[in-house]
Structures are given as structure tokens and as C-alpha cells.
Amino acid sequence: MGAFDAIDIARSGADVSQLWLQAIAHNIANINTVRSADEEPFRAKLVHAEEVLDGDGVGEGARAVEILDSDADPMVVFDPDNPLANEDGYVVRPVVDLSKEMTDMIAAQRSYQMNLQVIKTNEETYQAALRIGQ
Amino acid sequence: MMLPPISGVAGTPGVAAAQQPTAPTAADGFGDKIASALQSVSDAEFGADSIAQNIATGGDASVQELMTSMTKAQLSVDLLVQVRNKAIEAYQEIMRMQI
Questions:
Q1: Rounded to whole angstroms, what are the CA distances from B76 to A100, A127, B35, B61, B85?
Q2: Which residues of A touch B (CB under 8 A)?
Q3: What are the domain boundaries of chain A?
Q4: Shortest Cα–Cα distance, A1 to chain B (Å)
Q5: Quick one: average pLDDT of B47-74?
Q6: How confident is the model at residue A55, as a pLDDT?
Q7: Which strands form A35-36's sheet, in the order they lie side by side?
Q8: Is the ipTM reported for this complex over the cut 0.85?
Q9: Whole-angstrom Cα distance, residue A24 to residue A47?
Q10: So what's the pLDDT on residue B69?
Q11: Pairing status of strand A76-78 against strand A62-69
Q12: By CA distance, what is B74's nearest residue in A?
């Protein structure tokens, strides 16, 4: 156990939050990615985070283990003029819920800020300890 | 007219490889301990520098990684300075002693 463990743990949380923000950016960027109904639609990317356990002490933070695709049902739209449409005239809309992405973005931003606040508090604590005896 | 292509910056010296701090032994004096601590502080600074270089050259290091390493290096320096201040204070206290 080192002196800066809490800072490293909080940083691991900030890393996960940053990856989450990246996934949200990717999902929103693909809000117009229409494909032929014969193809697999674009599916929103979800970050699967997991705790990192330490043998003896408390944990060592969080890490992203994998990126998953959303399981929601795709919306198939009749659009025969679309050059991407299949023989029956259908295209498939991306599986992205914009309102969910926007609320997730708030949560991801707050999560990042929380971890930075933990780092800041730790730094202040450490500096308070350095003032002992002064 | 042919313009010569922009060539990469050549011969940029990399960050010198940080040396491993030697494990203090029982025979080590205060000077050796301070030297060993200086070495670890220097390692922390080198680590932060290499991350800063990575970010400045478009590497994949994150800003939080840079800022946390810089914070850790800064706190290590603060700790070392405090230890030095205490040691010098003690030394001066002894030197002022009336015999």
C-alpha cells in the first residue's frame, strides 16, 4: 500500500468515465447511421466496468473490461427511395436512444468530476499532513 | 515547382532512463537516505515528464494520467523538502548548543 494509492484509484475511475464519454460520443455521432434492413444495425456501445480487487487491502479502483452492444430492438423503416433500402424498401435505424445518451452524458461528466474531486481532496489531505509541526 | 516534403524532427533526445533507487540498508546514514529519497523523487519527475512528452506528441496518455503523476511528483518534492527542513533545523539547534 503506497502513499498515493487513493490518487491512483480515483484516476482509474476517471479513466473509466472518460471511456464512457467516448462511447457516448460515438453513439451520438452514429445517430444517423442508417443501414439496409438486411444488415445488422448500428448498436449503441456500452462500457462494462468492473472493480479491480487487491489481495489484502481495499480494492484498487475500476477498469473497463469490455465494450458491449445495446440489445434494444432496432426500428425498421419503410423508405423505398433510400439507395440503402433492401429489395422490399426497408432500412434499419441505429439502435441509439438519444435521450438516454444525453442523460448518460451528464452522469459520465459528473462521475469524472467526482473522481477529480477525490484526487483534489487527497492532495489537500497530504499537504495538511506535511504541515504537521509547523 | 516541387516542394520538398516536411521531414520528421530527427535526433530528439528521449527522457533518460530513470535509475532504480537502491534499497536502503541498516548501515545507510542520513545522507544516503536523503540521496535515495532524491532518487525516487527524480524518478517521479521523470515519469511525469515522459507522460507530458507523450501527450505533447499526440500519444495516447490521458490528461488525468499526466495531472495525477505531476501531483504525485509535486507531493514527493514537498515531503522531501519538509524532511530536509526538519534535518537542518535539528542540526542548527545542536550547533547553537552552549558547551
A1: 43, 10, 14, 22, 14
A2: 3-4, 7-8, 10-11, 14-15, 18, 115-116, 119, 123, 126-127, 130, 133
A3: 5-129
A4: 15
A5: 91
A6: 75
A7: A35-36, A90-92, A76-78
A8: no
A9: 9
A10: 92
A11: unpaired
A12: A123
> Distance between alpha carbon B97 and the CA centroid of its chain, in Å?
36
Tell me the C-alpha distance between B19 and A23, whole Å. 39
* Residue B64 touches chain A, beta carbons under 8 Å: yes
Grid coordinates representing B2 are 516541387
For every one of its 134 residues, what pLDDT tens digit does chain A have, with 9 covering 90 and above?
577 889 999 999 999 999 999 999 999 999 999 999 998 999 999 999 999 988 777 889 999 999 999 999 999 999 999 999 999 999 999 999 999 999 999 999 999 999 999 999 999 999 999 999 77
Q: Which of B67, B71, B82 sits opposite A130 (nearest CB)?
A: B82
Question: Pick from A110, A8, A98: which is nearest to A62 by CA?
Answer: A8
- The CA distance from B18 to B21, in Å, is 9
Distance from CA of A57 to the nearest CA of B (A): 21
Check whether B8 has a pLDDT greater than 80: no
C-alpha cell at A48: 462494462
Out of A11, A116, A123, the one facing B75 most closely (by C-beta) is A123
